[in-house]
Amino acid sequence: MRLIREKTVVQLTYLPNVFPVNCYLVEEEDSLTLVDAALPNNVKAILQAADQLGKPINRIVLTHAHDDHIGALDGLKELLPAAQVFISKRDARLLEGDLSLEPNEPGGPIRGGVPKKVRTKPDVLLKDGDRIGSLLAVAAPGHTPGSMAFLDTRNDILIVGDAFQTRAGVAVSGQLKLLFPFPAMATWDKRTSLESARRLRDLKPSLLAAGHGNMVLQPKRQIDKAINEAERSLAK
């Protein structure tokens, strides 16, 4: 996996030039938080990256319950039994394979690779505003009903899962980029995604770290453009 460091965050990318799948190590004083768990064959590479940083992974935080974000979860948990696993209360249902919608949710089907045989059970069910070390949990539904983003409060680096993509250009989840259409194809509700994108913009991130694509420094202009494009698309 490719490693790129920006301040307290290390981006790990599997197949960066073909089909980039990212996860992130967030460095605390004496430990690491892993945000997302990439693919099943990435267990060894994730542990090697942690070894390079010289700190243990004590927390595994999931932005949402799609296969390319939880793939290595079971393998990591077997090797790191003391690591706590965090996911939103809503997407914990997806982690169990439950695709049903709540009464107040838009009626479109939940899309994407929802796992069916995950053995790991979350230790903590997150809600908006919770803290995990230096990370602030921010509800960002749309790609899935319970998607979350995580803001490093020390430096305003924002890890967004698939609320945005940066591969083939910055885009709000649900907005198709022909050179990399997969996050859009896996999005549950485009209008909810747009509402979340506006909220994430209000956090004024210093860096945008997405599930697919390179990190974007000082992303305000790109985020504004992506939101404007999504607004025009949904107004048609």
> What gross morphology would you assign?
globular
Determine the structural class based on helices, strands and strand pairing. alpha/beta
Counting structural domains, the number is: 1
Strand order of the largest sheet: 1-2-3-4-5-6-7
Taking the alpha carbons of the first and last residues, their distance comes to 40 Å
Q: Class in CATH?
A: Alpha Beta
Q: Helix count? A: 7
The CATH architecture category equals: 4-Layer Sandwich
State the helicity in percent bands: 25-40%
Radius of gyration equals 16 Å
Overall strand count: 15
Write out key terms for the chains shown.
236 residues; alpha/beta; Metallo-beta-lactamase, Chain A; 7-stranded mixed β-sheet
SSE map:
Layout: E1 2-6, E2 9-14, E3 21-27, E4 32-35, H1 43-53, E5 57-61, H2 67-70, H3 73-79, E6 84-88, H4 89-95, E7 124-126, E8 131-132, E9 135-139, E10 148-152, E11 157-161, E12 164-165, E13 171-172, H5 182-185, H6 190-201, E14 207-210, E15 216-217, H7 220-235
Parallel strand pairs: 4-5, 5-6, 6-7, 11-14
Antiparallel strand pairs: 1-2, 2-3, 3-4, 8-9, 9-10, 10-11, 12-13, 14-15
Short description:
Helices cover 26% and strands 26% of the residues. It is of the alpha/beta class and 236 residues long. A hairpin with an 8-residue loop joins strand 9 and strand 10.
Describe what this molecule looks like in 3D.
- The chain has 236 residues and is an alpha/beta fold.
- It has a single domain, classed as Ribonuclease Z/Hydroxyacylglutathione hydrolase-like (Metallo-beta-lactamase, Chain A, 4-Layer Sandwich), CATH 3.60.15.
- It contains 7 helices and 15 strands.
- It has helices at residues 43-53, 67-70, 73-79, 89-95, 182-185, 190-201, 220-235; strands at 2-6, 9-14, 21-27, 32-35, 57-61, 84-88, 124-126, 131-132, 135-139, 148-152, 157-161, 164-165, 171-172, 207-210, 216-217.
- The strands form 3 sheets. A 7-stranded mixed sheet has the order 1-2-3-4-5-6-7. Strands 8-9-10-11-14-15 form a 6-stranded mixed sheet, with no helix packed on it.
- The longest helix has 16 residues, at 220-235.
